[in-house]
Structure formats: structure tokens, C-alpha cells
Amino acid sequence: MRIAVLSDVHGNLEALDAVLDDIALENVEATVALGDFLSGPSNPLGVADRFIELGLPSVRGNHDRYITDGREKDWHIDALVRGMLDARQQQWLASVPATLLLDEDVFLCHGTPRDDNTSFMDTMVGTVATMHPRDYIEAEAAGFDHDVLLCGHTHVPRSLRLADGRLVVNPGSVGLPFEIGSPDARYAIIEKRRAGWNTELRAVAYDHVAAAKQALDKGYPVWAEALTWGWASPRGL
User: Fold this and answer.
1) Which residue among 12, 17, 125, 216 is least enclosed by CB atoms within 10 Å?
2) What top-level branch of life does the organism fall under (predicted)?
3) pTM (2 decimals)?
4) Helical axes 44-54 vs 76-84, angle rounded to 10°
């Protein structure tokens, strides 16, 4: 079985379509998405329509939840997107589940299996992503005895093995690179072979200048800078 995994599009349709075009060249049996679809200024409505059209197996991210449910201190981008969505787009976003199990082997979540706003493998120390200790990661995975655990949230592409051989994969961010040194769109392909599950972390060039201009035209120069260079810190957005 061969599965494409994408996460954290953050309203960047240019990046999403580039990744989908790349996936179309691969012999995959399924494509899944791990949330934070719309929270970004470039083209969130286009992203919403694309996911509605595709109907991919998906889970919501923390920002998807903030858009649909609100919170005491709204992030400006979440409030912006909430005010843009039509009834059909709102209904779709509200219907996306928090977690999902695919064929009993592959578990989908955004942050960790228990919390969409907690990081699984990495954390931010200052403005730099640092890997969690092994004991922390093992504890977050405890009780979820599936061959593969898929997560997003941190925008850091990573694949690791737990002590019992289970695979944990973060595909990175399709549409918003954090401290990665490249504006490329990121996703992953996982494949079940005779010896077990393999991971391929992929980077796809796309018209990031167009995505940055869309953000700039909407009055978000810091987002435009992030999309242009790929050196963004989440704390500056």
C-alpha cells in the first residue's frame, strides 16, 4: 500500500496544487490530509473548494477548530478566514473529524493522538524547532497500537521509529515553511513493503512568489516574507 500524506496547507493553493500534481505522478492508492487547511491569507477559499472537491480522508487541525469554534483570543488569520467562508465551506470544515483510522494500520491526527494543539516529535525552543526526548514521544504514542501514526502541526518533516517498531511521520507543511531554509512545498509518501512501512519525505518547487504576492496584496507582509524565503518563525506571524 502506498499513501501520500499532506498537512498544514494554511490557505496556500499554489503550493497545494503543486503537491497534488506531484502526487499524480506517483502510484499512490490514497492521499490523506492532516489539517490546518485554511488558516493563511493567500487563497483559503480556493483551498477549501479544492478539498471539498477531492473528498480526501482528513483530520482537522487546531486552526481549523479555531475557525469553526472560535476562541477567546482569536488569531487574526483565523478570524479573517472565518469571515470569508460561505455556508458550504463552513459545513465542510466543521465536519472534518479530530482523528481517523485508515485500514486499521494508519492513524491520522494533527498534533498528537490526544490533542490537536500539542506537538508530537518536535517543539519550539525560542524560534528553533527541537526534537522532543524519546520518553516524551513514546508516552504520546502509548495506547495507539497502529503500525503508522501520522501527525502534522509543527511543520517539521520527520520520520522515526518507536521502540516497538511503529512508525511516526510528520510530512512537514505544504504551504507554510518554518525555519526550513526553503520555500518548497513539503509532503510525504509512506509505503508498506514486505519488511514494513517506509517513508519518503518530499520537497516540491512551486510558484511561491505568486503565493507571497497574494499574501502581500491582502496586507500580510510577514506571511509574504515567510513564503518567499522559507525561514519563517511561527512566532512572527
Assistant:
1) 125
2) Bacteria
3) 0.95
4) 60
